[in-house]
UniProtKB/TrEMBL annotation:
Example GO BP: iron-sulfur cluster assembly
PANTHER family: PROTEIN ABCI7, CHLOROPLASTIC (PTHR43575:SF1)
Alphabetical list of NCBIfam families matching this protein: sufD
Domain SUF system FeS cluster assembly SufBD core: 132-363
Superkingdom classification of source: Bacteria
Protein name: FeS assembly protein SufD
Sequence similarity: Belongs to the iron-sulfur cluster assembly SufBD family.
Length: 393
């Protein structure tokens, strides 16, 4: 008789980075503490009870889906929590994600039909409902075999919100998805994003975080058949009083798959402010399992600390269980300006403040230029310009 599976405290790791305890039931998780590995960077007291059940009354989020005119094979449905299409990407691996699953009253399912091709993005907008309530939700994006799709998430407004997004990318299908966290600066958001890729499937996932008081995103990708290709991009810019965390996992569970991860962030604090410091944390886990021969993967995180009163933590992790791979590597940096770049611009007569802003915008351009959609790229460029407006560094 097989022994019953034991609940793991706060979803700490099992034998490797990919073997996490998971459950759809929040009661299966203990309340996280500050010393728990997966929560050690997070200011738990600022989560407004999302982690321990003490949140304000729960309600459904305000979600709208805009399907472009002329779209083919796109279906949008509001479904019950027990719909069989939910949960295909796996169960939550931490207590807040499980709380969102347990507390939600409905979910949104967006399906792209087999072999359909949609080059214009479906936009999913999630709006906060204010500070007097808490919202929990889920969105499932299903891309059937052979289909090509683009989805943009716009997260706006004020509130306390936790959700689960899942992406099921079928065989020979392609999905481009952008998550733009443009919350007001008094919003708390904890989001889990899980993707599963079929044979020869392609995922391009990008996260842009500029707004919110506390924003924690947990993207996870798992290959379920050979030939998959995943690219994960991210940009974030934190000011004083803001905390942003990105905690990623790429699980190479099948042979001959590729992944590339590139996140870039900037921080500017205000030592004279009564608010807390600007703070970011990035944790990137890549697992290459024993049967994942032919894997080709690389991950990098770069951070610019622009002022005093700012702190960035960067933790890349690479776990390899087979030596029969094409390549694997990781890198992370936290630093100030490149003095040589600054000197070059100054020597060309560019004022010091303008030169610093040019360096920051150039720093982000490597990532932004790879995000699909010209309008979205322009929007993100403008967001960075807004962050730099009036900055003193």
């Amino acid at each position: 008789m097989t022994a019953p599976e034991q609940t793991v405290k706060a979803a700490t790791y099992h034998n490797n980075k990919g073997d996490l305890f998971s459950s759809f039931d929040v009661t299966d998780f203990e309340v996280p503490k500050g010393r728990d590995e997966v929560w050690r960077f997070v200011p738990l007291r600022r989560l407004r009870g999302l982690h321990d059940g003490s949140f304000l009354p729960a309600t459904s989020p305000d979600i709208s889906v805009d399907v472009p005119e002329g779209a083919k094979g796109v279906t949008v449905e509001t479904v019950a929590c027990d719909d069989a299409r939910l949960g295909q990407a796996g169960a939550p691996v931490d207590r807040v994600a499980a709380q969102a699953w347990t507390s939600m009253t409905e979910a949104t399912v967006v399906t792209f039909a087999k072999d359909s091709v949609n080059n214009d993005a479906v936009t999913i907008t999630i709006r906060g409902k204010g500070l007097d309530s808490t919202t929990f939700g889920a969105v499932a994006v299903i891309v059937e075999p052979g289909a090509q799709a683009r989805v943009n998430f716009e997260l706006v407004g004020t509130g306390t919100h936790a959700d689960n997004h899942e992406f099921v990318v079928g065989d020979n299908a392609k999905l481009d998805v952008v998550v733009h966290a443009n919350w007001n600066d008094d919003t708390v958001h904890v989001g889990a994003q899980r993707a599963v890729l079929g044979r020869d499937a392609t995922l391009r996932h990008a996260a842009a975080v500029f707004g919110g008081e506390v924003v924690r995103l947990v993207p996870q990708v798992k290959f379920t058949a050979p030939g998959g290709d995943a690219e994960m991009l991210g940009v974030y810019f934190a000011d004083d009083g803001q905390f942003f965390e990105q905690r990623l996992l790429v699980d190479h569970a099948e042979p001959n798959c590729k992944s590339n991860v590139l996140y870039k962030g900037a921080l500017q604090g205000d030592p004279s402010s009564e608010r807390t410091e600007a703070r970011t944390a990035w944790v990137g886990d890549v697992l290459i399992r024993a049967n994942a021969q032919g894997t080709d993967t690389y991950e990098a995180n770069r951070n610019l600390v622009l002022t005093e009163g700012a702190r960035a933590d960067a933790v890349p992790n690479l776990e390899i269980e087979t030596g029969e791979i094409v390549g694997a590597g990781h890198a992370a940096t936290v630093g100030r300006f490149d003095d040589e770049q600054l000197f070059y611009l100054l020597s060309r007569g560019i004022p010091a403040e303008d030169a610093r802003r040019l360096i920051v915008r150039g720093f982000f351009s490597e990532v932004i230029n790879r995000i699909p959609g010209a309008e979205l790229r322009e929007l993100l460029e403008s967001k960075i310009a807004d962050e730099l407006e009036g900055a003193e560094f």
